[in-house]
Amino acid sequence: MQTINADIVIIGAGSGGLSLAAGAAQMGAHVVMFEGGEMGGDCLNTGCVPSKALLAASKAAYNARSKANFGVRVADTKIDFATAKKYVDSVIAKIAPHDSVSRFTSLGVTVISEYARFKTAHIVVSDTYEVRAKYIVIATGSTALIPPIPGLDKVPYHTNETIFTDYDKPDHLVIIGGGPIGVEMAQAHNRLGAKVTIVEALAVMGRDDQELVNILKQQLMHEGVTIIEGAGVTKIDQNTDSSPQRDKKIIVRLADGQVLHASHLLVAIGRRPTIDRLDLDMAGIDHNTKGIITNKRLRTNKKHIYAIGDVAGRQQFTHIAGYHAGIVIRNILFKLPAKIDNSAVPWVTYCDPELAHVGVTITEASAKYGAHNISIFTSPLADNDRAIAESRTEGMVKVITHKKGRILGASILAPAAGEMILAWAVAITAGQKMSTMASVIAPYPTYGDASKRVAGSFYTEKLFSPRIKRLVQFLLKF
């Protein structure tokens, strides 16, 4: 077994671990990084990148056959499902060099392609290496959560970790879970020609603004996705019938008595932290079912050990892992007591239209400030000239403010919601009021103009009040 002494050991080469390794190594730290799986982690290989590539392919298919109102008719549109999946592979391959062992080695990082575990609180070991480090950062991410549904282990099923490598188009894809992964994969597969049913025990996209979610659900159902809410899966059986129909392979039984027949099954009910092989108890690191317990500096109960990204039991987003990496760099390298701030964390579900949010929700704002102290303003895309020109008027911008105008939260359902939400994230981070957004000169015509319009609506009642009319009439006398 080879022995190495290092400044920082990073366990996991996903988005958080890679960001930390690149930054720390280029600033002069001796960094050792362990990764027994694929470089780039979930985001590159089974998450963000492949899902967005598949959504792009499905959007091309949808647009090719749904633009007759523009006077554009594409005859005999054909979808090659396997080629769409190969496109996903090609996108991953283009990005992979940026996350590769060779690139990080060139940056000065010692990359060990093996799984690591704790031997003590200061020593990390793998099959062939033992590394003693001043600081240790756990960045092992998360993996798909598999529910204890009777019969699930007896049938073939997919998670996000396997569905992108299946080149066979489903006859009927049943998705268990109506969160972001379930919704994105439902729309992508439906647009690529598969029959799709979402089964959600509670409510689809439950953490997002339900007014916008209802608009999104209507769009999904209009496209052909079946949505079943409020009925969980109670049992799954393998169909032993000799019927040749491919969509009869799996029988999904619901709590309300419905029975679904599926050719393919996708489990997308959430994620769990990847901590099983770490031997955390050997280091005395506190953890629970949500992940490794950390304070706002992302320190564990061992002051020299940090946890970042999904494994830290906080928001499970790639951009959060990168943000965590920056916090840890400031703590470890510059000895600054940097702390996380979750007040302006954006998230986006990349369906079409996209659904984005940043800041607090209406419920959170009401609980914190009192319902009488908050206001809600909306700007429907039906009033947006760019949306009208592109026939994309489903959606709106909704903003939550304190009664004095400070921006608290924003939700957007729009074709470019993921891009539009950044402006509101900046405003919330800077503690800005609606006056800032209202005074911006927005290019015309853009979807972003809806953000300026909703900000302007904060002043509508005051500007067009009887008091202002009397003031204007008085001033016009001079």
Q: What would a concise description of this structure say?
A:
It contains 16 helices and 23 strands.
Description:
α3 (48-65) crosses α4 (81-95). The chain has 16 helices and 23 strands. Helices cover 33% and strands 23% of the residues. The chain has 478 residues and is α/β, with parallel strands linked by helices. The chain has helices spanning 15-26, 41-45, 48-65, 81-95, 101-106, 180-191, 210-223, 280-283, 318-334, 362-369, 385-389, 417-429, 434-438, 449-456, 460-463, 466-475; strands spanning 2-11, 31-34, 110-112, 117-118, 123-125, 129-138, 142-144, 172-176, 195-200, 226-229, 233-238, 250-254, 259-262, 264-267, 271-273, 287-288, 291-292, 305-307, 347-349, 354-359, 374-380, 396-402, 407-414. Strands 1, 2, 3, 4, 5, 6 and 18 form a 7-stranded mixed beta sheet that branches. The model has no long low-confidence stretch (mean pLDDT 95). β4 and β5 form a beta hairpin.
Q: Treating each run of at least 4 consecutive H or I residues as one helix, how many helices?
A: 16
Contiguous uncertain segments of 5+ residues:
none
* Mean pLDDT metric: 95
Beta-strand level of the residues, as a percent range? 15-25%
Oligomer: single chain
Shape: globular
Q: Could you describe the largest sheet, including whether it forms a barrel? A: 7 strands, mixed
Give the class from helix and strand content and strand pairing. alpha/beta
Could you estimate the helical fraction of the residues in percent?
25-40%
**C-alpha-based Rg, rounded:** 25 Å
Distance between the termini: 91 Å
The number of strands is: 23
